[in-house]
Records
---
Amino acid sequence: MQLTMIGNGAMAKSIVLGLPEKYEITVVGRSEEKLQIFANECGCGYALLDDYDISDQNVIFAVKPHVLEQTAAKLRGKAKVLFSVLAGTTLAQLQNAIKAQYYIRTMPNVGATYNASTTTLTGDVSQKELSIELFSSIGKAVWVDSEKELDIATALAGSGPAFLALAAEAMADAAVKCGMRRDLAKEFTANNFYSFAKLIENENPADIKDKICSPAGTTIEGVKALEDNGARKAFFSAVEKAYERLQK
């Protein structure tokens, strides 16, 4: 299948690197120098944005939301399916800016590079199967029934890796402070997340915590420290604030 990727930023690169070879990809952008670097690193073709024809193409639109109209003005033709990766940009806004037969909002995360994205999708139901097939190539694809659910998922799954990265960095730093070598601290932290991913697929988070916390033990002492320092409230607020930002 041929795909056109409009945009050559970090998310675009993550998606292209994650897609299998059965997809023939052309990346489209403003700077030929940057496009050449992108194409060499990702093994795809490239084209300049000005007057680019998207007629009958499946297009992944991955630019910054604030340059939607500016970028759209440089395109011509009518796409077949437009897959938008623009956070907080509604289907109605996309329809007003770019001509396409079908519109899909999608929000992958940076795990796409390693085929481990959690990608949320919504839009024209007739393209649901194609959308899930495409984005399942870079991880797990989940179709939701409304744009509100997609925005909530963006705050949780799209922004989530950054929140977890902050937690991982803090845990590794704490281990170093206690006397562990940096490389070991990083390895143990990474393995914690790997193990937890397997656990949470099958168990409730509260049950996992309760299973590990023995009476007057080390883990419950650490959990109390997290509660005393507002860890739960901080994560709650992080997701809420990210969602609220999408509504502005």
---
Amino acid sequence: MKREILISASDEESWVALKENGGLTELMFDRPDQIRHVGDIFLGRVEAVLPGIQAAFVDIGEEKAAFLHASDLTREEETDGGRNGSRGRGRNTTPIQNVLNKGQKVLVKVTKDAISTKGPRVTMQISLPGRFLVYMPDSNHVGVSRKIDHRGERGRLRSMAKDIVAGQPGGVIVRTAGEELTPEKLAREYNHLRNQWNGIRKKAAKAQAPALIHADAKLISGVIRDLFTNRFDAVTIDNRRAYDQIVQYVRTFDPDLLDRIHYYDSPRPLFDHADIEDAIQRSYRRKVDLPSGGHVIIEQTEALVSIDVNTGRFTGKKKDPEDTILKTNLDAAREIATQLRLRDIGGIIVIDFIDMESRENRKRVLHELRSHLGRDRARTRTWEVSDLGLIEMTRQRVRPSLLQSLTEPCSACAGTGHIWTAPTLIREIERCVHRAAAKGDEQDILVRVHPRVALQVMESEPRFLRRLSKKTRMRLDLRDDPLMRHDEFRLLAGRARVDVTSKYKVA
């Protein structure tokens, strides 16, 4: 299987796309107005302890208090009867009211960003990820990533790791990138992570709660650290500064991968060149067409995500409707697994496949869904078909989905729909202008937007037009139009102001 990482970065936002066999499978983005804290370590102050739900709320200096469950207390605070290092909610842990008090200072790590009305989720079970190892200060466990499946290699790495951590505080897990790791590299990173932890402890001892103690690597550097191994064939970056940083990091930690890093230098946007912009746009839609002619409808709500499967125009064999339904459901199972990963949808998910009479066929569909979910980096769990013919599942959720991050509730329909946020619309305008520049048919473009979007540009990016004009060598102007929708824009070219929006906007 051919795997690629594509990175499109600017000062305003960064996007990372993962491709497998030419198809888009995962999409991540980062933007200054979208604050991410997963992996960050804070010195927090306990605001309240709730024995009834065995949890506490911790002030970490953010808008909403963080949620700390009893299963996420430090390992040494668990009872002898409990399982060390367990994060499950049903475990036998010491009652949280016996461990924490209101006003107490605690060192916590964010495991899930704030989503909707819920604050971030935190744990006191601190771990520090490196390129090859995850260091766990409060554990003596030594493990190896499950993705390294060669038994001999797993045994070699575990033995090597045990030798290096013997007699030293803290445990480790060897990551996927640690395959074929040498003792010298392992020892160097172990010492680096231990020193990093000692620095965190010293900083926390002097800090006043609440305070950010350690910021984890952000999107691009985190992806290179966590994902870029010899399992990927290439990394392509369209930003020179990001490219230089990645080359420097890989040269230090894994120089054998240097020849797989490529700089993309072309006026045509990288994602257009990689032929994935259409797939990105489809990932925002409710309806997803299937190869068989059927389709699925994906609805995200506050409580759960519902997915409905329909045959659509696909009629198949009229004499064998069960075969038609099976083919549609198998198509849908593959597509649903892809869309959950691509849209980064998490939480409770209920799938309404088309009813099937055959128990064997129901098992085939469930197996197809589970096998494709197995490629997902996020943890998933699926249950058997219910009495109502539904498949219920969960997917790990550590941040808002793409739709939640890029859109806002529509004021015109009382929150039943979404519209693009102003920053999202500005970035889309920027991509369209770059496409126009790459094609070379326009020299002068007037951009019309709603007054709210124009105000956003003036307040947050006053040099937007000047910067974009310099990059594209085009004359650009921006006008507000109160008759336009909040999420609408128009590109008008030349003196005649011909509407060329559809020419450069991906549908």
---
Amino acid sequence: MSGGRLDWGIKSSFQSYVTGPIAKGSWNLQGGAATVGGSQFRFHSAKGSYDPDTGAFTAAFSGGVHFTGHKKGGAYALDLTISRPTVEVAGGSGTLFADMISKDKGTGKVTSTAQVPLATLNVSGINMKGGTGPIALTTLPTTLTAQGAKAFAGYYTAGTQLDPVSLSTDLVTGSAGGKKDKAEDGPKGRAGGKDAAEDRNAPKEKTAGRIEDAAVDWGVRRTFREYVSGSIAKGKWTLTSGAQDGGALFRFPKGEGTYDEKKHTLSADFAGAVRFTGGHGLDIGLSRVAVAVRDGEGTLYADVAGKGFTKKKAPLVTFTDKELTGLKPKDGLIAVTEAPAKLTADGSKAFGSLYPPGTAMDPVSLAVAVDGDAQLPALPDLGSAAAPGAKESPAGAKSGSTAGSDGSADSDSSSDSGSDSSKALPIVLGSAAALLVAAAVAFLLVRKRRQGRPEPATENATEASTEASGAAENP
């Protein structure tokens, strides 16, 4: 298999506890993980195997979440990282494994364990055999194992119900089902796909200072995406002209421009556009994205088309990072990874003055190939999009919203394009299906929209205090 996503909130009440008035903590995403729905984290780039004859299925995903809380001095009493979730289904049973780093609730001892059998998955009544295309498992009930309880630092006992798990994966050439390798349409790890690859492989006259290929990755702002798709705006975003969805970010590919190694300057224009639409007059389009670097500072520009503000090549954010100071290529590639970004005055206007100038926005990542043989970093592979009309799951919903100091309960709310559901793995439910009605188990990828709140101008660690007031010490 190649490409896919796993959506899991781990345990919603744990998220509320971490960001509430007791723990006064937060969480942050790692390794390209994103967020989706009211309280779910999205892990990406599935790799594994599937046997249609036996139904045996294994899918390992990338990304992680780091929770911290109960700060004492410069350390946190609550410190837990869950990453690289892997789902295995065989012989009528399922297990979710994950890498765990945790500080014991009682002793403070830090333990790091790879691929802990964290939770059992209820797959009863599901016939895993005979799949011929994209495989999706939706809202599988999960139960904490004894080993998982230990790795969870003692916050929960074995048998505790965790949030349900949903996942989808693509099959490739050589896998059961014979789905064509997505590489035929252009590797997602390179900006621009097949056409761009052909352009790069075509004979070119070597020109000093010319950019051979480039891509800029930017998610705009995590809580803005959450607001767009939440219950207030009830909107979506649409990617066009080659822009790509990386879950927690948008990739604008096919960069063209120039680079001056002596002056440490760079200028590049990119393909792709994104448009945010929704209720309350939300309609903001960003296109013709460009980046300029000078004197160790970068600026990201875009043509803005909105109801309240329209401007060509408006400077949206500035970003700084030590990698911008020297701006030297390594192995033919200039790479700037997650440079902190701040909103400009024009950027504030572009977003309807929802945020004041100087507001921290999502970081900017820039990859510039100055050598034709250099490859751009891979984009997180989310696999095929959800099928149109997929049944929405009532499970895993959270009563109310929370927000930590870094905006917990975030949502990656990218508007998935439709996929061909006619090739999806067929589902056969047995008598046990009656027990799973609330979980709505089906072989369809589900996107559960977040129970949103108005997007704040600034993130506040105490936003969750109202909801969590009176919370017990135990999450």
---
Amino acid sequence: MRQKTGIVDVGGGMRGIYAAGVFDFCMDAGIHFDAGVGVSAGSANLASFAAGQARRNRRFFERYSQRKEYMSWGNWLHRGSYLDLDYIYGTLSAAGGEDPLDCAAMQESPMELLMVATEAWSGKPRYFPKEAMRPDDYRVLKASSAIPFVCRPQWIEGRPYFDGALGDTVPIEKAFELGCGKVVLLLTLPVDTVRTAKKDRLLAAGIRKEYPLAAKRLERRAEQYNAGVAAAKRYAERGELLIIAPDDTCGVTTLKHDPACMVRLYEKGYHDGEKIVPFLAADPIAL
């Protein structure tokens, strides 16, 4: 019997263009997965992948991110968020927008899709299924991508949510809980990177008064990330998981988005996507 396959995208802000390259290779090669779990920018990558919209994510990272409406200090001053998630997942992504998400195709995809967000009051992760999104209502993507302090929390069903990386930084266990026998993990930092909490502590200070439990989780994000990658390496040793990660980030950071650097990182992702083919070779139906 064919093993169920899954893919996990941990996001990483503008570094997510690396994973966008991997997904474009998969679409070009006809590679499908039974399940996907996305965090932050990884949720948006997976939504477009499920919809079969090749190169869409690349356009968002490489082209639209250069606009002041997408990310700027002007947004911070006037909207309270450096990233304007309403512009990204509303103006651009809605039907009739410049680059709409094909919500119908995403919903009709046989791939089970979960998007991780963190409930700001409790600091706990919530795994939203793709069915939680409807045409022109992409609050789940906004919630999954709402970097604390950099963005306002997003409200769903009367509760505030921040970026999914606070609650479940490397959600490989969720993929295995979905019944996957083989999982591809997309990182956007070199695999041996050891993250530190310095920047996270600064961001946590900005939300601690209103959301103390979310701030506490944010302060532990680096620890959770490092533990998650260590666990992934153990799964990889058993042949149950494949880690795809760049050898360097080409100068791209969470919010730094030089177009030439982003193109190089995208191309790295597209090339590295080829590693998925032999990993899934034992499951010819998956190809």
